[in-house]
Amino acid sequence: MEPPPPAVAAVVASPEPEEGDLVTNKRVILKRYVTGCPRVEDMEVVSGTARLAVTPGSPAVVVKNLYLSCDTYMRTRMRRRAAPSFVPNYVPGEVLENCAVSKVVASGHPDFKPGDLLWGVTGWEEYTLITDPRFCHKISYPEFPLSYYTGVLGVPGITAYAGLFQVAKAKKGEYVFVSAASGAVGQIVGQLAKLIGCYVVGSAGSDEKVNLLKNKLGYHDAFNYKKELDLNAALKRCFPDGIDVYFENVGGAMLDAVLRNMRQYGRIAVCGQVSQYNLERPDGAPDLFLLVAKSLRMEGFLASDYAGGYRRFEEEMARYLREGKVVYVEDVAEGIEAAPAALVGLFAGRNVGKQVVALARE
C-alpha cells in the first residue's frame, strides 16, 4: 500500500511569508539510512517553528495535522537506494512524510479554506506547508472518526477495493486467502470478499489477531502463521480444494506456500511483501513455474493507479460502514513523540489493526 504522489514541502524548509502567527512545530526526521529492522533511534523528534500563513498569490495551504498514518511501506523509503522506485527515498535530516488527516489553517488555494478538513500527503509534523495541494481530498463524511481517512476511507481502503475487485477480479463463490489479514488493508479485503459471497481465510501473527479476524471481522477461518510448522499444510487444511484469489501482503515463505495451493486460473494481487522490507537481499523467488503450470495471473499494483475512482469508492465504503457491513479496527498512539515507536512496532506485530498516531483530536 502506498500514498498518492508526494506534493509536500515542510514549513520550516520553505520560503516563509513575512506575516502570520509563528508557532512551535514538532517534527519527526530520519537521522540516518536504515539497515535491517528500523529502530526508534533511527528517527528523532525535533522542535522547529511554522508560520501559519501562505505567501500572497501562492496556491499553497498550511495545515494542522490531526492524525498521522503509520504504514510498513515507509520502511522502503528509509534505505539508500540507487535504483529509482515509485516514491523517492527519505533524506536524513529531513522530515518524514506520509498520509495524514489535517485541518486547513491558512490557504491561498481557491478549493480550500481555513477550517476545511482534508486528507493527503503531509509531513510527519504538527504543521505542514503543502505547496501543491492537488492531491489532497476534502473529507466528505466527517460523521465517521476522522482517523478513518488514514485507513478504511483512505489509501488502505482504495487499495483493498481496487486490489480485490479490479486486479484479482474476485467473484461470488470463490476461495480467497489474505495474508497480514488484520492489518490496515487486509481487514478490509476479507470483509469485502465475504460481502460478495466468497469463502475467506486470513493469516495473522498472534492468537489475538486470529480471534479478531474470526469473531469481529467475519473471516470464515484464520490461522496464526507463527504457530504453523508447515505453511503448505496449513493452507491445505484451510483450502482443501485450493485458492482462487490470494491478496498478497507478505511474500517469502507464505507466497511460496500459496503458489502450491492455488487453483487453476487463480489470481494473485500483490499489494506488498512486508517480510522482505528489512532484508538487504530479498529471499529467492518461489517456484514461479507454478504460474505456468496452473495458468495463474500475478499482478502488482499501486493505489494511485485507481485514484480516479476514489469518490465512487468513498461513497460505497461509507454506506457499508453506516450499515455495519464493514467494521474497522484501529490502534491509536497518542502524540508525535509516539510516532517513531508506533512505526517500528509494525515490524514486530505490536499493533492490532490500522496503526494511527493522534496529534490533535478536533
UniProtKB/TrEMBL annotation:
It holds the Pfam family ADH_N_2. Keywords: Oxidoreductase. SMART domains: PKS_ER (SM00829). InterPro entries: ADH-like_C, ADH_N_2, ER, GroES-like_sf, MDR_fam, NAD(P)-bd_dom_sf. Transmembrane segments: none annotated. PANTHER family: OS12G0226400 PROTEIN, PROSTAGLANDIN REDUCTASE. This is Enoyl reductase (ER) domain-containing protein. GO terms for molecular function: 2-alkenal reductase [NAD(P)H] activity. Homodimer. It comes from the Eukaryota. Residues 75-357 form the Enoyl reductase (ER) domain.
